[in-house]
Amino acid sequence: MGGDELPAKELQVRRTTTLCCAPLTGGLLDPTDAAELAKVLSALADPIRLQLVSLVAANNEVCSCDLEHPLGKSQPTISHHTSVLVDAGLLQGRKEGRWTWWSLVPGRLAQVRAALGD
User: Fold this and answer.
1) CA pair distance 5, 12, nearest whole angstrom
2) What is the DSSP string of 45-93?
3) Distance (Å, rounded) from C-alpha 73 to C-alpha 81?
4) Domain spans in the chain, listed from the N-terminal domain onward
5) The whole model's pTM is what?
6) Which CATH class is domain 31-115?
7) What's the CA gap between 32 and 83, in Å, rounded?
8) Rounded to an integer, what is the distance from CA 100 to the centroid of its chain?
9) pLDDT digit string, tens, across residues 17-58
10) How many angstroms separate the Cα of 37 from the Cα of each of 40, 43, 49, 88, 95?
11) Is 44:90 a contact under the CB 8 Å cutoff?
């Protein structure tokens, strides 16, 4: 053994007791919040749904009858996407006759930003 080498037992003790960094103290989402955020982010991880949310956000409230043309999708497809966004807590609907008027759930996007550390 050369002069710079430590005995194996002492080396093992140093490895288990020395921290390379300070312990993490914050920023970890609890499992329930992480699962909820994952559901929201999953809902937003689709280009059509992102476009839909941007249309509703820009116009405060949008009739489902007005979504076909700008999105280039059929009414059943739009219905599917709005349903996913409602399940994620991002959109809310108000029925008026045969149409639904969509709006963002107040404060929901702010909650998502806050959970991501904004």
Assistant:
1) 13
2) SSHHHHHHHHHHHHHSSEEGGGSHHHHT--HHHHHHHHHHHHHTTSEEE
3) 10
4) 31-115
5) 0.75
6) mainly alpha
7) 22
8) 25
9) 556 776 766 777 788 888 988 999 999 999 999 999 999 999
10) 5, 10, 16, 9, 27
11) yes
